[in-house]
Model the fold of this input.
Amino acid sequence: LLLLLSPWGASGVSCPPRCVCASNILSCSRAALSSVPAPLPRFAAVLDLSHNNVTRLRADWAPGRLAHLHALLLSHNGLSFVSTEAFAHVPHLRHLDLSSNRLRALEENLFSDLAELEVLLLYNNEISSVDRTAFENLARLRKLYLGQNRIARFPLELLRDGTRLPQLALLDLSANRLRSLPVGDLQALPAWLRDRLYLHGNPLACDCPLFQLVARGRRRRLSAVMDFQEELRCLLPAAPAPVGILALAGRQPLNCSEAREAVLEGHLGDTVTLSCDTRLRGVRSRHWVTPGGERVLEEGGNGSAALLANGSLQLRALRPEDAGTYACWVAGPLLNETLYVELLVHNFTLHGPHDTLNTAYTTLVGCILSVVLVLIYLYLTPCRCCCCCRAAAAAAEKPPAPRDDSINSSVLSATPNH
Done:
């Protein structure tokens, strides 16, 4: 009977050797395996192969389709090769752990079969190159861990247009070999991703945009900055050792200052002006960077954005895509300054003063109706005292109920038999 009730007995598949099986979970961790055990039951939902010696994951590791598998753990295996067709039989995988292996490159369309993947762990490998199509078709990916690798170039193409990984909310690039960051492009990222970008432990070159990026995270108390302040360091040209990025404030030779932020709201079709109120004197040049990463350098500009003579940026006929963080970069004789303006665009329009008149008229009508209802309640509601007196008189004239009624009432009020 127990064999028939368990999924193993019902399918006629025994638990693979050196594995522990419980319901739809297969735990084959620390079993000294050099390959994926076979056969694997089709109802398996979690497969743990961590801490083994599976160095190559070929396309035929799962001979049949594992439609129920949603978690695959392959960490600590010395894995150095993963076939581009390795995940064709697990289309509903949501959690994939390939951490602590020896992967050196992420090949073309490596994870494109995992359309439902949400968490991908690739930290503590030897990855130095990432193909721009490696994460193609991962529309549901929310967390990507690439820390402790050998990545020397920031993979901005994964994030720039927001269509390749539209739901990505956490990107860990810590402890890699990044020397520079496209700070202007990072500021244009959506807030939910920009605030969960981990960059500590990289040999970054010191500059003021980098300082302002980190200082902005400290002001917002972001965990990516607050939890790793000691590891957020950079290299100065003449310094013998890395210095803390947050220690660059007022320090020579950069003499960086924190960027200031403002929030501005607008509505569809409006014209708004974003001011660049710098405290610097003798400004030599200034330019704006839009949320899309485009620079507005010349007075007059083109399209809907125009740079005014006083350094402000004017946006005409606001659209939903105009929302985001705008940066004003100001170059002074001694130091530079950056000001950020967060523009919120509401998805409705304001049509002018007659809207105010309509609102006032509606309010007046509501007040009049309220007064009329109160008067009706006070003067047209029957007197409760008269009703009470009539009810008392009727009760006095009513003959006493027979004794059987008390028995019936006690039966009706009895507690049901559960």
Notes: The radius of gyration is 34 Å. Residues 44 and 296 are 55 Å apart (CA to CA). Residues 1-6, 8-12, 351-357, 400-418 have pLDDT under 50 and may be disordered. The domain at 264-346 is CATH 2.60.40.10 (Immunoglobulin-like).
